[in-house]
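Q: My labmate handed me this sequence with no annotations at all. I'd like to see what the chain might look like in three dimensions before we decide whether it's worth expressing. Could you predict it?
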Amino acid sequence: MQNQKVAEGEHVLLYLDQRRTYLVKVEAGKVLHTHKGFIKLDDLIGKEYGSTVTSNLNVQFTILKPLLHDYIMKSVRRTQIMYPKDIALIIVFSGIGPGSRVVEAGTGTGALTTALAHFVRPNGRVYSYEIRKEFLETAERNIKRAGLADFVELKNKDITVGIDETDVDAVVLDMATPWLVVPHAYKALKPCGTLVSFSPTIDQTVKTVEALKANGFIDIETLECLVRGMQTERGKTRPQTLMTAHTGYITFARKALKIAATETSQGNNDDF
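A: Here is what I predict for the chain of 272 residues:
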């Protein structure tokens, strides 16, 4: 059962309104400064989640337990992160869940890595490849902040050269040249394992689909996810002016076992 009271060392989300929230680590002696005054983080220790804390300007903030969404959207960023709308599709369509072994590339700031690690718990693992060491350092901080470091192995390697792991459940790619990884992914995946590729342009997507078809993958499907928020207020309800539209194309595929030529020939003879 989760702790219902704030303990020192935990991360909390301080909620002012829907646009202004603050993800902070509760440490004695530390102070959070905002445009609505400062809050002594000591004052949070022992308070119940869902209760409020007051700044020195007498403005109330609500203390919330951070969700996976909060850790993702408030990641320390060196690159563009993947949005929850795309992450949700990747998780559901790939079949990733508790116990899954997942290969990922590239790590970037670790937003997708954090989500994958959250879902493979308690006995799964994410092997995340990234060629830029400075990105891995940022990702490691974000993953640790979410309390998920035990489920991730970060690898400073070029996945286009090869994949170390075998018999994995899924390979998830968010990189510039995913088609170069497709043959390695086929070898690494267990039968019926899934490959997911996220690409911002259609040219990248077409090349990836062609590689999937040439390397023994089936059930290939490409989707684009658009999310539009709603302004919900009596007499004023309408779609919000701004929306999270195109972020990328997501291609899903499954590994099928390749049939040897002699076996195919024998099978054809049996038909006559």
